[in-house]
Design brief:
Number of strands: 13
Number of helices: 12
Structural class: alpha+beta
Radius of gyration: 23 Å
Shape: globular
Number of domains: 3
């Protein structure tokens, strides 16, 4: 039995699982191992499956299956689960390659995200982007927008060549689409948490800004009308804390806290509470009403 044998390391497991699944699917499919670069340089291993007469590929991540293998699940059973996951993904029939070939069809689905520049330097050379403070604005195409998850594809320089457009044109489209696709959500800390034991003055200073999905909502930092409106309503300049790639925290600058205190707060939270792939920045930003400008504090 498999449980009496020495366990395979991850790489060997991936190879054997691919071979097993390939045998079961047959010659009309092609499979290959693929390392996916996620945000901030994180890596995920997957098996990519494609039916040869189709251009659609499905990437199934392997970490969960390897965990089950280490807990003594048989490779045959894991292969069966993998095939079930593939068949479910195939039902969605998302023609990724075909969709991205037709700019006119996907133009309305192009949007932007904010990521940390330094932690994503390894992919910057292959994609259109704009530097923004210590961040980078990247561009993506929405494939699915479900209640529980979002499926999107990163736009590369190759796509711009295919479409015959430049980064300036891409930016214009993304600025039009992103607030429409992902409307902003602004909530006070009082709405999110029970601050019954905290002074009301503290509550009224802090707002959490994201989009309505709560995914990659820090992009709302680029929604100028949102920041302008908050500054106007609070009648104050603003400190902005990059909580994660999913949200920002806006604080009224009324002298209650200093920049140094906020920087330390951001660094502590990033170190103890934010997953590496969700990290946005250790910086604190500042919005000046007089200058109508966002800058590093």
């Amino acid at each position: 039995m498999q449980r009496n044998l020495k366990k395979l390391d991850f790489s060997s497991f991936a190879v054997q699982l691919k071979e097993l699944v390939s045998t079961q699917l047959g010659e009309e499919y092609e499979l290959y191992l693929h390392t996916v670069t996620k945000n901030n340089g994180g890596l995920r291993e997957s098996i990519v499956v494609r039916k040869k007469e189709e251009r659609v590929t499905h990437s199934i991540y392997l970490e969960m299956y390897y965990t089950k293998y280490l807990k003594d699940m048989e490779l045959d059973s894991i292969a069966a689960e993998f095939l079930q996951a593939y068949n479910q993904a195939a039902l969605n029939n998302l023609p990724e390659a075909e969709v991205l070939e037709d700019y006119k069809k996907i133009r309305k689905n192009i949007f932007f995200r904010l990521v940390n520049y330094q932690k994503n330097e390894d992919i910057i050379g292959d994609i259109p982007y704009l530097p923004f403070l210590d961040l980078a604005i990247t561009f993506h195409c929405l494939v699915q927008n479900k209640k529980d998850y979002i499926s999107s594809l990163r736009i590369t320089n190759r796509h711009l060549e295919l479409w015959g457009i430049n980064t300036k044109m891409l930016t214009k489209v993304a600025k039009e689409n992103t607030p429409r696709i992902f409307p902003a959500s602004i909530k006070s800390m009082e709405e999110i948490f029970d601050f019954s034991l905290t002074s009301e003055a503290n509550i009224n200073r802090m707002y959490v800004v994201s989009n309505r999905t709560g995914i990659n909502g820090a992009s709302c930092l680029l929604y100028k009308e949102v920041i302008d409106t908050l500054a106007e309503e609070l009648n104050s300049n603003l400190f902005i804390l990059p909580s994660s790639i999913h949200e920002i925290i806006v604080i009224k600058d009324d002298g209650f806290v200093t920049k140094d205190e906020l920087v330390q707060m951001v660094m502590d939270v990033n170190l103890t509470q934010v997953a590496e792939e969700d990290f946005l920045s250790d910086s604190v930003y500042y919005y000046s009403v007089e200058e109508q400008r966002l800058m590093k504090a």
